[in-house]
Write a structure and sequence with these properties.
The structure holds two protein chains of two kinds.
Chain A (H helix, E strand, L loop, with lengths): L1 H48 L4 H4 L13 H32 L4 H15 L2 H15 L6 H25 L3 H9 L4 H29 L3 H6 L19 H9 L5 H35 L2
Helix pairs in contact in A: 1-11, 3-6, 3-8, 3-10, 4-6, 5-6, 6-8, 7-8, 8-11, 10-11
Chain B lengths: L1 H46 L2 H6 L15 H32 L2 H16 L2 H19 L9 H24 L3 H9 L4 H12 L1 H17 L2 H6 L17 H10 L7 H35 L1
Helix pairs in contact in B: 1-12, 3-6, 3-9, 4-6, 5-6, 6-9, 7-8, 9-12, 11-12
Classes of the chains: A mainly alpha, B mainly alpha.
Chain lengths: 293, 298
């Protein structure tokens, strides 16, 4: 009896320590991952902070690293995102409304659903090939702001649709039934009841989808967006560049001086992203509070 | 009165049609992608034989001496993706097991959004990090590492993919019924034993789905490898030398001014077709695995 008890005791101690060890290893792994994240952000801030200045924000790119600025890319990103939102949000919300409020559960809505999920997984560079052939060549839009925005709109559409559907699904059916009971038509119910309740969710989802698009360089490079632009786009058909492309361009130059400009560009890009995410969080909280009053 | 009701009905119909068209646009997008890729790829194969494309060991469409063998691009893509998965899979799984089975609720609530930040950082930023931070750091340990290589971008890509693996695996583990855990505990299993021998096997299809999706993401990732892996198509599995992936090649051609309609221009669509169908198959497979786990436990 005694040797067995000793063996059992040994086994339990071993088990106890392996579990301890696993926990320590797991926490260490998590800490390493978070430290990498911190290193990544710090690295860019340290490299770029010295380069960041009002001059950097208000200058065009230059062949001289110390004179190069990010104005064209900053303005290009702003225009591109506004245009993308104008195209993608209405269509995305429309598709979400169709799938949630109108579509019968049949093979068609099933096909659309699977298709949207798959589109969300298509590599972004493939959208660039589609934009190149369809908008740049077939529709003759050239490498313009409009062609870029349409390409980006197709890229974010699946994300907006998915977010929109979630927001619509969160509206309780009783709201719709009450509206119908008062004699409202389907569209009246959607417009005055469902959409106004789902609005904060849709808004946050759309902003988050756009903040995904803002960091994308691959599809725009593929459709032919320029990397060196020393003027501001003056219309829908003007050539343009965006922040990630400008950063890519500076990183791939052989001169070391441009690396600091790239790091400063990264800081600007991250700040823009942070602002968009903060806006999304703020809007969600503000509207939610008002709705439940 | 009747007229107004009628007009209203017509309006309702029109709106419904409009929403339907928005939904149909997503189908058209898929159709457009496939049509564009197939069209240009067929034109490409009118000039280059499929056999050469699949077996030639050199990829030099932009040189005078042209070779159209996709193997070097495939090996570059495979190499960077494999390194990324080797980093992301163990780390992501350990994080998922810890967060799902061990972590106290506050830790879990705080860690998840921070991990999500990793997935939200633009890929050019990762590219910068790989080229100017990770590569020099690795060079102090491995002096033979060249300035452009597969190792650094692969590792950085792995970091980017960690949240994808950990959150999908965690969802799968979370879906495992509590009764299975309780049964194992009743039989005397420790928490670690329950996690590794009950929860992980029960969530296996979900973890496999996360793996496939991660591979698909790694194959399609563009900017990290375009910045830090170099642009030299090379049939090798050596992680220390410059390579070129399929995505990086598309970027390389797009940056130059290759005239449209030429054979060089069509190569990016042929490569794109390869890329699209490999990721599509992985995505579909991953989705079917996730549906299976949902059917089993819900």
């Amino acid at each position: 009896m005694r040797p067995q008890a000793a063996a059992l005791y040994r086994m339990l101690t071993l088990r106890h320590w392996t579990e301890r060890l696993f926990k320590i290893a797991a926490v260490a792994t998590l800490v390493i991952v978070l430290a990498t994240l911190a290193a990544l952000l710090l690295d860019a801030v340290i490299d770029g902070a010295g380069r960041l200045s009002w001059q950097f924000l208000t200058s065009f790119p230059s062949r001289k690293p110390e004179e190069a600025g990010i104005l064209a890319a900053l303005v290009g990103t702003t225009y591109l995102m506004i245009l993308t939102a104008v195209v993608a949000v209405p269509v995305g919300v429309g598709a979400a409304i169709y799938l949630e409020e109108y579509a019968k559960k049949g093979w068609f809505s099933r096909v659309v659903e699977v298709n949207i999920a798959n589109l969300a997984g298509v590599p972004s560079i493939i959208y660039g090939l589609l934009g190149l052939e369809l908008f740049v060549r077939a529709m003759g839009l050239d490498r313009s702001l409009l062609a870029g925005a349409l390409t980006m709109a197709l890229l974010v559409l699946p994300i907006i649709i998915i977010a929109g559907r979630e927001a619509l699904r969160a509206v309780p059916p009783s709201i719709r039934e009450a509206s119908y009971a008062l004699g409202a038509s389907r569209w009246q119910t959607i417009r005055y009841q469902v959409l106004s309740l789902a609005f904060p969710g849709i808004l946050t989802g759309s902003i988050l989808a756009l903040s995904r698009a803002i960091g994308e360089a691959a599809p725009l490079i593929t459709m032919g967006a320029l990397t060196y632009i020393a003027f501001l786009p003056d219309g829908l058909l003007a050539p343009f560049t965006v922040l990630p492309i400008q950063i890519f361009n500076w990183v791939s130059r052989p001169q070391k001086g441009f690396f600091a400009a790239a790091a400063a560009g990264i800081i600007v890009l991250l700040v823009v992203l942070l602002l968009m995410n903060a806006l999304a969080v703020y809007l969600r909280q503000r509207y939610q509070r008002r709705l439940y009053l | 009165m009747l007229l107004r009701a009628r007009r209203k009905r017509v309006g309702e119909r029109a709106l419904q049609l409009g929403f339907f068209l928005c939904g149909a646009l997503s189908l058209l997008t898929t159709f457009g992608i496939v049509a564009v890729l197939i069209f240009e790829t067929v034109e490409f194969f009118a000039e280059v034989s499929l056999l050469e494309f699949l077996t030639d060991t050199q990829w030099t469409p932009l040189f005078a001496q042209k070779h159209f063998g996709i193997l070097p691009l495939l090996s570059g893509t495979f190499l960077t993706s494999a390194i990324a998965i080797l980093v992301a899979m163990p780390v992501g799984l350990v994080c998922a097991i810890y967060l799902s089975e061990f972590a106290p609720e506050p830790v879990r609530r705080m860690t998840k959004p921070v991990l999500e930040v990793l997935a939200g950082i633009p890929t050019v930023v990762y590219g910068y990090f790989a080229l100017l931070f990770v590569t020099p750091l690795l060079q102090t340990f491995v002096p033979s590492l060249s300035g452009f290589n597969a190792l650094a971008p692969g590792m950085v890509m792995g970091i980017m993919i960690i949240p994808l693996i950990s959150s999908l695996s965690e969802d799968a583990m979370y879906a495992v019924p509590q009764s299975l855990r309780e049964a194992a505990h009743a039989l005397g299993a420790s928490r670690l034993q329950v996690a590794l021998r009950v929860v992980v096997p029960a969530a296996f299809s979900g973890i496999a789905a996360a793996f496939l999706l991660a591979v698909s993401r790694a194959i399609g990732e563009t900017m990290i490898v375009a910045i830090a892996a170099g642009q030299q198509p090379r049939l090798t599995l050596n992680p220390l030398v410059p390579v070129e992936t399929m995505t990086a090649y598309i970027v390389q051609v797009s940056l130059g001014d290759t005239p449209t309609g030429t054979l060089e221009y069509r190569t990016i669509f042929a490569v794109g077709t390869m890329l699209f169908f490999s990721t599509l198959i992985l995505n579909l497979f991953s989705r079917s695995l996730r549906e299976r786990i949902r059917e089993r436990y819900e």
